[in-house]
Each structure stands twice: as structure tokens, then as C-alpha cells.
Task: structure prediction
Amino acid sequence: MQYILIKGSYHVVKQSPDADSVKFKATNAALWQQIDTENRDIFEQKLTVEQGAVTLRLQGIDALETHYTAPGLPMPLDVAGLTSSTLTRPAATSYGQLSSLARWSAEKLLEMLGVTQVRWRSLFGSSQYITEARIGTGANSVVVKDKWKDHIPGYIVTGDVELNGRPIAWAFPGTTILVDGAMLTSLDLANMIEQSVNYQLLRRGLVYPYYFMTLSSSLRQRLIAAVQEAQANAQSLDQAMQPNVWRLDRSTAGHAVTRMSDIAANTALYPYLFRRLVKHYYGQQMDAYWNAVRTQATTQPASDVMTLDGFFANANPYVFIISTQDFVRLGDVVEISSGTLKMNKSPNDLVFLS
Result:
């Protein structure tokens, strides 16, 4: 696979970055056209809306969610046209994971890019955005409060754009002697990967790994080693001073699933599974609502309690297990028993096919 290096600036003020996504604006916008992607249209729309900036999806990592909301669900045909004066359609609530650790990870990403003294503000009581931040270090640093005025120098390496219009990127702080628009091979990238914030976040145990088949083996092996280092260091670190997701993770140890609010507030889970749980819980709420509408009930179940019934009914993708070289369904990796969810393989051992 061919990659392109694009120089530019990161932007965080009046934005909502987390540990695996951040806004970026290219110095030479024409270089975006050299990315070979099937998602060109949505990417161009994003560029237009954000004045030439675009949100990056950092390659190979998955951060604790700071504000994830389940997508809307289509109305069943047999419910269309039915109304009720007493029932209330459930709202799609935004959930975050271990808010203090998720914030810590996001701020460490920002520090790697040269951003400190970050001030956050809540937006509609759930998601948060940055109102001001100090850009740079020493006497040359400045506090920025205005959107698009925080020109944080950096460069990215990318080769594709994902379905939501975000370049799948390796992010680097500062400058490089490589020319803007340089074309790189996987081997070229492997030789510089340890300077990326992607690698550093994994090595410090601040994010989970998230591998896809489009990621070359040479790059994946570097990330796997970074994760193994973080896992080996997890128990020896002072959790108050240097949080590490592997010390808190319940994905492979197993966790009893009861209340969505408790899972969000108190449990470190593989973010992919967390998003699946949020979608599953919202689906259960909507099913109860639609059933109440169908039967013309005057009340509906209103509970934070969820079950794992039918957890893989709507989506059970194939994954590749690195250690055994097997292709299996996700349901073969995630065990569900008596309301407990448990992964029998580490996230570092999984590659998603799509």
C-alpha cells in the first residue's frame, strides 16, 4: 500500500478531540486529491463544512469513548402511523467510559502534539469541547481561545479515508525533513512509526489496539509490541500518576452486564464492545417502546437494566485471530454466559476484516 505524507496543522480549540481523533488542516490542500479512496464524496463534504480541516481517525488505536451515542434505528413497518399520547420515545443517550481516564488519555495526546493547560466545557451535559489551550512550549507558547487560531504544527501519513469521511492516519508532531506530499511504502512508514502519537499512546497504555486487515503486517507487528510493553508495565505503574487501561481492563477478565450507566461510569472495556453495548441497550429500549405502541399500552418499561439477549443478532462480523491464524465470528471470541460478557482473546490478538 502507498501512503502520502501531508504537512499541516492540528486544531483543538473549540473542538472535541479525544485520544484517537483530532482535527487537521493540510498546508497544501491539493494533496488530499492524491489519496485513493472510495469515500471521496463524504470526505469532500467534511472539508467544506470545516473550512478545509478534517477530523482524523488515528490508525491502529481505539480510545475510551468520551461521548458515544447509538445511531438512530429505522421504525418497523407495522408501527408506522401508530401514535400514543402517553408513551415517550426513548432518547439516544450519550455515554462515555471512565470519564477521568478518557480525559487523561485525550490530554496526553494533546501534550504529544504540544498542547497544554487545556480548559474544557461541557456541551449539552455530555460531550465536551476545549475553550482554550496553551500552544507550544517556553517563551514562544501562547494561550489560544479562538477557533482556527491554534496552528499546531505537525504532519500525517495516510493512505485511505473511512466511511465517515475521516482520513485513517498516523499523526506526528512538529516538523520533518521529508517533503510535503512524499509517497511512502509500508516499510518507510514502519521505520518512522515509533515517532507517531499512535504508537506512543499504545506503548503507554492510554488506548486499546484496533486492527483492520488493511493494516500491513509490518506495521501491525510494531503496534503489537507496543501494546505488549504497556501490558507488561501495567501492574508496576502508579495508577494515580500514570493510568494504564490494561490495569483496569475487564474485557478478558469478564464483566457482569446489568446497568448501562454503571458500565459507562465504572468499567474499562474494549471500546468496540462498549459501542456495541450502547447500541444493544438502545435497541432494547426501542423494542420495548415499539411493542408498547403496538399493543396500545399506556405505560412502557423504563429501566436502566439491560440484558445480553440477542447481542449478536444484528451484527456478528468475521475477525482474524493472529495467534491461531483462524478466521472466526466475533461471537466466537466474545463469550456471553449468565449475563457476563468476556473476551477469550486479547484485543491485541484480533484483526477486523471490515
The mean pLDDT is 91. The two ends are 17 Å apart (CA to CA). The chain is about 25% helix and 25% strand. The longest helix spans residues 271-294.
